[in-house]
Design a protein that fits this description.
The complex is a heterodimer of chains A (297) and B (302). Chain A is α/β, with parallel strands linked by helices. Chain A folds into two domains: 2-50 and 132-296, P-loop containing nucleotide triphosphate hydrolases (Rossmann fold, 3-Layer(aba) Sandwich); 62-122, Alpha-Beta Plaits (2-Layer Sandwich), CATH 3.30.70.20. Chain A has helices at 15-28, 45-49, 77-81, 106-110, 149-166, 182-188, 202-217, 233-245, 259-265, 270-273, 278-296, and strands spanning 2-7, 33-37, 51-59, 62-67, 87-90, 93-96, 116-121, 124-131, 136-142, 171-175, 193-198, 222-226, 249-253. In chain A, the strands form three sheets. Chain A has a nine-stranded mixed sheet with strand order 3-8-9-2-10-1-11-12-13, with helices on both faces. In chain A, strands 4-7 form a two-stranded antiparallel ribbon. A two-stranded antiparallel ribbon of chain A has the order 5-6. Chain B has 302 residues and is of the alpha/beta class. Classes of the chains: A alpha/beta (297), B alpha/beta (302). Chains A and B meet through helix 4, helix 6, helix 7 and helix 9 of A and helix 4, helix 5, helix 6, helix 7 and helix 9 of B.
């Protein structure tokens, strides 16, 4: 079983669209695959792969402080000591801002009245979806404004791995979050192979460089796919130069193709929606190369 | 400005849920357009994972400041191996080893100092680690504050806090009319920290299922925070499915203030690092940014 993750640094460069298509191609080639949506802030893969939710499990991965207002005398020591500015005194009592609280427990330690309790709270959900193709998709979602997205990603991946073991799957395919922070690190950790998507803009190149640092740091072999490659010739060449200089393979280039947004609107992978489109042809070429590489891993 | 001008610097957040919908493009053009109109403008880049404003404005970051957090350092002569610090550490950054001082995993430490408070021997001394940096820059009469997460670090929220703090110091000194805040994608606590205390928020989206789903999430977040918000529909003509976005907005009682079409001029400016309101002020998109700036002036009350 091999685990592949799609990352990008910059958001909106086409991670989910590419992931949906590659998963679809793996499925259609007869591989057993488990999909995993690790973009727990904006989990969009299920919108394209569609299916029936079989199970939804709450995840209690974060802790918060709760004030017992009968005991609190409003002394303000907790407010002073909280590193996350999550406490305030309102009408003579300490009040926790649950979105800023990281549950570190300092307030509990310093409270002279023993008025603080630390409790775990539900910070997200992990759903198991049986897609309309039949293979499973694990999709995680962080609750609005919550902390600890990395822990939800870990829960998504743990469930995907368990399912892949049980079903003796060939591949786990992870759609990663944008950025380089905690959830991205969790999405990359333990993966066998990373595909970094970039578009030919200076911002995408800057963010690509940052995310490839992370994949390298985690010793995860990586390749680049250039999406909307013909959008700007000069920037496209710069990405190629960057890849050569840093010794990262460019697995393929996908042209700007206005059928892609329509495939998203129609909730289908582009390779299924318009198999003869220019984008689909390039994605199939990327897929063929990817299979060869995965074979040799 | 003169008579109606408010004392306090107005804060306007640009956010959107989904990545790559055009948050930074809109934040930059809005800031530059407002500066063109004679306002004193600060732009604050809170997308510390992927800080891109300075690239779109083609300017150099300078005056680096480190964003540091507390890290415990155990004085081995004072430590009696009681394990109180390990018990206090909810981030599991300290590990108890029998008859030895605790072992620290710096990557897991969030700098809360619970260990230091819990230690009965006062054996925990203050050390620190860098989790990111903040910078200053200037371009097109806009001052810019940018935060950047150190690669491999997970504490992005600390860096967002660092950016807001540094920006606040500057705001107190410089008497800006308005500060525009560019946030990270998503609807998590970093986005919330970035939007904390804003007078108005713009949520940028695009007419696809992804845009629809993620807009719903971010509008829940702004509602939870009690923020005034409007939607900017970017790449409005990318599909013929604008209606799905209008429906989300109607459900949330939020209006769409601008529709920006897919536009070649905008893309060229994006790549060249010159905002379209400067490069091509008479173009269709530049005119849309101008009316968006007028809208912001009105709702922010500057």
């Amino acid at each position: 079983m091999k685990e592949i993750v799609i990352v990008s640094g910059k958001g909106g460069v086409g991670k989910t669209s590419l992931a949906a298509s590659l998963i679809f191609l793996l499925f259609r080639s007869g591989f057993k695959v488990v999909g995993a949506d690790a973009d727990v802030d904006a989990p969009n893969l299920a919108l394209i792969l569609r299916g029936e939710k079989i199970e939804s499990k709450p995840i209690r991965a974060s802790e918060k402080a709760f004030i017992n207002s009968d005991k609190c005398d409003g002394c303000g020591i907790c407010v002073e000591r909280c590193k996350f500015m999550a406490l305030n005194i309102e009408s003579g009592k300490a009040v926790v801002n649950r979105f800023l609280c990281e549950g570190c427990g300092v307030c509990k330690l310093v409270c002279p009245k023993n008025a603080v309790e630390i409790k775990d709270v539900e910070s997200g959900v992990v759903a198991t979806i049986r897609t309309r193709y039949g293979f499973p998709l694990i999709s995680g979602r962080l609750h609005i404004g919550e902390t600890g997205s990395g822990k939800i990603v870990n829960a998504v991946k743990a469930l995907a791995r368990k399912l892949a073991e049980e079903e003796k799957s060939d591949f786990i395919f992870v759609d990663g979050p944008p950025g380089v922070g905690c959830p991205v690190i969790s999405a990359i950790a333990g993966a066998n192979y990373a595909i970094a998507v970039a578009e030919p803009t200076p911002t995408a190149l800057y963010d690509l460089d940052r995310v490839l640092w992370i994949t390298k740091h985690f010793k995860c072999p990586s390749v680049i796919v250039i999406n909307k490659a013909d959008m700007d010739r000069e920037m496209r060449n710069k990405i190629i130069e960057y890849a050569e200089y840093n010794n990262v393979e460019v697995l393929g280039e996908i042209p700007l193709d206005m059928t892609v947004p329509y495939s998203v609107v129609n909730a289908m992978p582009i390779v299924e929606y318009a198999p003869e489109s220019e984008a689909s042809k390039s994605i199939k070429a990327v897929y063929a190369k990817l299979l060869k590489i995965l074979d040799s891993l | 400005m003169g008579l109606t001008r408010k004392e306090k610097t107005r804060l306007v957040g640009v956010t959107g849920g989904k990545g790559g919908t055009g948050k930074t493009t809109i934040a930059v053009n809005l800031a530059v357009q407002l500066a063109q109109m004679g306002f004193k403008v600060l732009l604050i880049d809170c997308d510390v994972d992927a800080p891109n404003t300075h690239i779109l404005m083609n300017c150099k970051l300078h005056t680096e400041e480190e964003v540091k957090i507390f890290l415990p350092k155990v004085d081995e002569n004072l430590c009696v191996h009681c394990g109180e610090c390990v018990k206090a550490c909810r981030a599991h950054a300290l590990m108890q080893v029998e008859d030895k001082p605790p072992i620290l995993f710096p990557d897991l430490c969030n700098g809360c100092e619970a260990c230091r408070i819990a230690c009965p021997q006062k054996a925990i001394l203050e050390d620190w680690k860098i989790v990111g940096w903040t910078y200053k820059a200037e371009a097109y009469n806009v001052d810019l504050i940018v935060g950047k997460l150190k690669l491999g670090e997970a504490e992005s929220s600390v860096v967002v806090r660092g950016v807001r703090k540094r920006a606040q110091k500057l705001i107190e000194k410089e008497n800006y009319d308005i500060a525009i805040i560019d946030t990270a994608p998503g609807a998590h606590c970093d986005v919330m920290r970035a939007l904390y205390g804003v007078d108005y928020a713009l949520a940028v989206t695009e007419p696809t299922l992804f845009g629809e789903y993620d807009l719903n999430l971010i509008l829940k977040l702004t509602k939870e925070m009690g923020l005034n918000v409007s939607v900017v529909l970017n790449r409005a003509n990318m599909t013929k499915e604008k209606k799905i976005i209008y429906d989300v907005c109607e459900n949330h009682g939020v209006k769409i203030v601008s529709e920006i079409p897919l536009d070649e001029t905008l893309l060229k400016c994006y790549v060249s690092g010159v905002p379209v309101v400067i490069q091509n002020p008479d173009s269709r998109v530049a005119r849309i940014f101008k009316s968006l700036a007028d809208f912001v002036i009105e709702v922010a009350g500057i």
